[in-house]
Amino acid sequence: MKEFNVALIGYNFMGKVHSYAMNNVSFFFDNTVKITKKVIVGRTEHLVKQAAETYGWEAYATDWRQVIERADIDIVIVATPTASHMEIAVTAVKAGKHVLCEKPLGLNADQAKEMLDAAKRAQVVHMLGHNYRRVPAVSLMRKLIEEGKLGDIYHFRGVYLQDWLTDPSFPVNWKLKKEVSGSGPHGDLNSHLIDLARFLIGEIDRVVGMKKTFIKKRPKVTTPQSLSSNLHASSDAERWDEVTVEDANHFLAEFKCGAMGTFESSRLASGRKNHEGIEINGSKGSMVFNFERMNELHYWSKDDAVDVQGFRTILVTEDVHPYIQHWWPPGHIIGYQNTFVNQFADFIQAIVTGEEASPNFYDGWQGNKVLDAVTRSVHTLTWENVE
Amino acid sequence: MKEFNVALIGYNFMGKVHSYAMNNVSFFFDNTVKITKKVIVGRTEHLVKQAAETYGWEAYATDWRQVIERADIDIVIVATPTASHMEIAVTAVKAGKHVLCEKPLGLNADQAKEMLDAAKRAQVVHMLGHNYRRVPAVSLMRKLIEEGKLGDIYHFRGVYLQDWLTDPSFPVNWKLKKEVSGSGPHGDLNSHLIDLARFLIGEIDRVVGMKKTFIKKRPKVTTPQSLSSNLHASSDAERWDEVTVEDANHFLAEFKCGAMGTFESSRLASGRKNHEGIEINGSKGSMVFNFERMNELHYWSKDDAVDVQGFRTILVTEDVHPYIQHWWPPGHIIGYQNTFVNQFADFIQAIVTGEEASPNFYDGWQGNKVLDAVTRSVHTLTWENVE
Amino acid sequence: MKEFNVALIGYNFMGKVHSYAMNNVSFFFDNTVKITKKVIVGRTEHLVKQAAETYGWEAYATDWRQVIERADIDIVIVATPTASHMEIAVTAVKAGKHVLCEKPLGLNADQAKEMLDAAKRAQVVHMLGHNYRRVPAVSLMRKLIEEGKLGDIYHFRGVYLQDWLTDPSFPVNWKLKKEVSGSGPHGDLNSHLIDLARFLIGEIDRVVGMKKTFIKKRPKVTTPQSLSSNLHASSDAERWDEVTVEDANHFLAEFKCGAMGTFESSRLASGRKNHEGIEINGSKGSMVFNFERMNELHYWSKDDAVDVQGFRTILVTEDVHPYIQHWWPPGHIIGYQNTFVNQFADFIQAIVTGEEASPNFYDGWQGNKVLDAVTRSVHTLTWENVE
Amino acid sequence: MKEFNVALIGYNFMGKVHSYAMNNVSFFFDNTVKITKKVIVGRTEHLVKQAAETYGWEAYATDWRQVIERADIDIVIVATPTASHMEIAVTAVKAGKHVLCEKPLGLNADQAKEMLDAAKRAQVVHMLGHNYRRVPAVSLMRKLIEEGKLGDIYHFRGVYLQDWLTDPSFPVNWKLKKEVSGSGPHGDLNSHLIDLARFLIGEIDRVVGMKKTFIKKRPKVTTPQSLSSNLHASSDAERWDEVTVEDANHFLAEFKCGAMGTFESSRLASGRKNHEGIEINGSKGSMVFNFERMNELHYWSKDDAVDVQGFRTILVTEDVHPYIQHWWPPGHIIGYQNTFVNQFADFIQAIVTGEEASPNFYDGWQGNKVLDAVTRSVHTLTWENVE
């Protein structure tokens, strides 16, 4: 029986889903592994206390440094806003912990490089939380592309569209403040697309992008206290807060393999909820994926007889498909949460075998480089190399 | 140059689309054929006169018997309500005319048999207007099934759903009167499904059905005069008319090949406009078609590698697909009207070559037999053989 | 803290997913409830032992009677083949246990009635495992129909299609033996459709059906020993086993509300994996659902302006949708397993509040009546009342 | 009876579909208009002769100048490669003919401006052949956007994908030679997207683009003579021809209204045949269209109740929808060719009423400006204003 004690830094959405993954990984993957949810960490005591109870953690804490120092912690999961990734992750790897860090890795490539270097020096397992690589349909795409099913790659087009900011009364939270999140959908959503692009067809050479903040002011987040004071607020400054990140960020790209790429991310795409869509066209075939139908992969093959060529809707729920032998019979589809179980299983597998995790901090560094190049291009108004 | 003079009996929806077909057949199929739209026939003079002008007929007439007697008419198209099909078609074939008759062929199998016998005796070309056989995707289904792509056939499921009767104020027209139309969606829509079933997988052995009229009374058709008199109508009988056909008719079937079948037709299926949907499951594959996306055929093949099996959406617009070489380049989809041009081209081809048309009055007779057996079963409440 | 100790009878597919549900219910629904997975029961010791380890049960056992007698068991889950449901469930309710039983409830309506009567006498909570009621999209259908969104119901059409028997070398397991399973897809799949039909639009009045076994002999299940003896088998009887249930079972139905229904179930529908599809048409709207895209509900409303009417694809992942507040943010879809967590949460809720569970053994009895009537009709070849 | 005599310059694909439109416009739209197909013009006599016969032209000619001089010609349709548009169209308008010119209008904005100026001076009706404006679903989009259904527009994304160049043995035709076509998919496909973008949400301010030729050499077009000489060809130059246009061209855009745009065109998108796809996101709703399902419009509205929001698939075949009253009953879908009939009907309508056609040469000029700005940006590697 292999046993691992985990500390989780962060307790919101990502905290919930990582807790879920830990609860279920041995059930589905390997019942010789025992994961103990030791301690969950957050700055606001009453909230992290409640999370600890709901999600079943042995303990909670408010000081992540103390937790990382504990000798009984094997694994640290960093699920905080981006601005604190580097400090926490570097401290954790220096303490010899294996680290699974949420994306994007750093606020920029320099931070990411520092994290990578620290992790390498510490010789721990480091992983980046791009859970979408663990969608069975996405893993299948990778496998088919590696088998040459698409031939030479000509086009990659990715869109990651959400609409939670279309309501102008949605208040400013940390995701809308640059000093905490680094950027808007660029770091939040484009980072996923970039990771999938790299995973599926390789590195990006150069980019040119644009971004825009359509709704520049939003209500301040209201706490019970602020709410009552807001009622009497006399100035705009007290009621309104500035949005300091973009609402949407698009870019063109050229890949090392020669392919042309387009990337779009937005939080203002009405009706699109978590629409992470990818299309890849190659000389021998094409593939289309959309997370909102994550159990399906659309695949067109030139190898089919001409009269029956067409995009196939592969229901990726067969035993032969990646990860599915751990789940349910054909046609019994899985959901978002399963990708985190798959991810955690792979993370544990890397720790047990000593192999590199994928994606890891190197991938995070490469991803940050692309994000940075796009951001530079928005200012220089010209193409920027990824370097 | 082959020349054919046509008389068209009927001038409503079917009159319009047959006229269209004649106008365009030589353009797309064979410019050595000249079709002359000699005379269009209807009972209401001012309406048929207007149709003649709009659709470009040389003349119009109100007496179909006189028209059929004319020596210069080669082809008669019967596009009248079902109750008059037999009389007109038998007269026409006896006069040596080639006949294209709308579906269902007769009010019942006896009528259809009489029509078939007359046509055979007259040695003319006889065709039945099941235009949906001429949808390229449907023709492709037939071809693939003949090639054995589906293996043994287990299931046929057909639905033909419309919703034009969901509005209870829709008035009683001829389609809602049994003495004129014979039946409701059974003859109108199930006849199409039955023809496609026979075309694709063969004869039906036995059936059991049910039917229902949900909305039993509807407003009388209002003419300008009736409208004003209706305002003063004192009795229900003057304002309301009885619906004497069913709103929906479903049945189970067993095919000669052993397959199980389900058939559904309704005019009360909200949101379904002309939803003629078919699914066939066989030991080696499946196919799905829906007229509202008539340019697409969905095909699943067991021959595909297991990890990439899936329903393909074949866009049936390639040169290698049936009829398409006459139309447009790939991806430039065709519409409802094209099926009538394809049909008329095949009809002319049969006349020119002397080969049998398909479907012909024999098919109409078989179709009427199935319709009759379902109707008997509705009354006997038990399975009825198709005989 | 409410605490419940559970015994699970059965350890295969259903055993796995019920175990999963128990593991996760407090995490997602109510962390004041503690579920203890006390003992899992099966006849084959080495297999149930392994299941106990994989799924995290405190103990395993091979004699369900002894387990049910234990005073520390509060809840019994019956996840065995249908033939043993009655005996186990009746014993369990008599022992005062709350029972969640897999579907169909009994081998026939008489058994189901006995189970219902026993459960009522025992005044325990009894629930039937029709997990598909707990698909958020299905719950939403129910809510919208109750609100009158569909108006008068005209049509219900349900298909439940799988293809795991298309391979003729698939061996005979318990699901293919009538003495164990009672029937083929009729009890297995139609039971689900019937439950959804009753849940959504009410009781069924009369039915007429058909069934068919296309592949009548299949290889015997091979155990390591049987495999070696099979190599030397000299007679067919030793290698082949008879399939004693149907491969497919379809029926027509009339509902108490007047609606017409069609039901189809098959295990020979190539390409269909767990395709549980439902369409309901009413005077004011229509709805379409398919389990393989279980996060989506298609809804057409006559209330929309005429120029923008159309089937909406509702992504049922919003906080306002049933169950979703317990799961993830919009667009982060859920899977098959979630329906069992929802179901178990509702079961526990019923136990805690003392309210009736839904569906319960009464629903199971009604469902068995419909199944029985269809089976009678297959033999009498005529319509049979559900009674 | 209004009568118009037409000369058509060009006889290939566009020649065929324009001929079709003229044949059918009075049938569907206005039987008081008589269109006479006077003369079809092409440089290769035996081919244009054959086209004249197939498409039913009174005469053919090889010298377009002589034809334009004829007093009996009212309308000239320019359906030649782009390089000759200006000369033919300017000559025609100077001769007082109404002109319908294929897209893109000129090789560049300067040419387009000259054409516009000449047409305005001549006071004739001038129209540009962007037939996709006449897809009923696209017209409906425009109407709904004008009604404010989408609110403020945030995003426009257009892709126009084909795959006829994925076969490397496809030979070099005029569309692959810059001196004849001006560009590849940029002028051919992006011009359509740009026109739709302008039609739907207004002018484009600035752009940055990229283009690529993946397959740089292709076989020479083989004529019977060249074929035999090719067999003995000793040099590459004799067998291979250089592709002088791009295979794909993408760009980012900012609209005057503030919206962000992405545009992609490719002839190397395997499996995409004529995939012209558009998505527009606004503050109150979104719309999605794809030509390969041209009878459908997907529309999401924030005005719907929250629990039933979803993308509606509007089947644009109702009488209330643009153009449909001229066509078929609900659910009887139309095809590519219908857009040309709609277009020609509008063109004739403009001539009869003296109103401006839409789109006209002004639109063509604006479109050419955008194309030019993208082309400049490909060379300058920076954003270029549309001016």
Write the layout of secondary structure elements.
The structure is a homotetramer of 387-residue chains.
Chain A: E1 2-9, H1 13-28, E2 33-41, H2 45-55, E3 59-61, H3 64-69, E4 75-78, H4 85-94, E5 98-101, H5 109-122, E6 126-128, H6 136-146, E7 153-161, H7 178-181, H8 185-201, E8 204-212, E9 217-219, H9 224-231, H10 236-239, E10 240-242, E11 248-255, E12 260-266, E13 275-282, E14 285-290, E15 296-301, E16 311-315, H11 336-353, H12 361-380, E17 384-385
Parallel strand pairs in A: 1-2, 1-4, 2-3, 4-5, 5-6, 7-12
Antiparallel strand pairs in A: 7-13, 8-11, 8-17, 9-10, 11-12, 13-14, 14-15, 15-16
Organism (chains A, B, C, D): Pullulanibacillus camelliae
Domain GFO/IDH/MocA-like oxidoreductase (chains A, B, C, D): 140-287
InterPro entries (chains A, B, C, D): Gfo/Idh/MocA-like_OxRdtase_N, Gfo/Idh/MocA_oxidrdct_glycsds, GFO_IDH_MocA-like_dom, NAD(P)-bd_dom_sf
CATH architecture of the largest domain in chain A: 2-Layer Sandwich
Structural class of chain A: alpha/beta
Please outline the major beta sheet of chain A.
Answer: 9 strands, mixed
Mean pLDDT of chain A: 95
The helix count of chain A comes to 12
How many domains of chain A? The number is: 2
Radius of gyration of chain A: 21 Å
> Could you give the distance between the termini of chain A?
44 Å
The count of DSSP E runs of length 2 or more, i.e. the number of strands of chain A, is 17
**Which band does the percent of strand residues of chain A land in?**
25-35%
Main-sheet strand order of chain A equals 16-15-14-13-7-12-11-8-17
The quaternary organization reads as: homotetramer
Please bin the fraction of helical residues of chain A.
25-40%
GO molecular function (chains A, B, C, D): nucleotide binding; oxidoreductase activity
Domain Gfo/Idh/MocA-like oxidoreductase N-terminal (chains A, B, C, D): 4-130
Domain GFO/IDH/MocA-like oxidoreductase (chains A, B, C, D): 140-287
Pfam family, one (chains A, B, C, D): GFO_IDH_MocA_C3
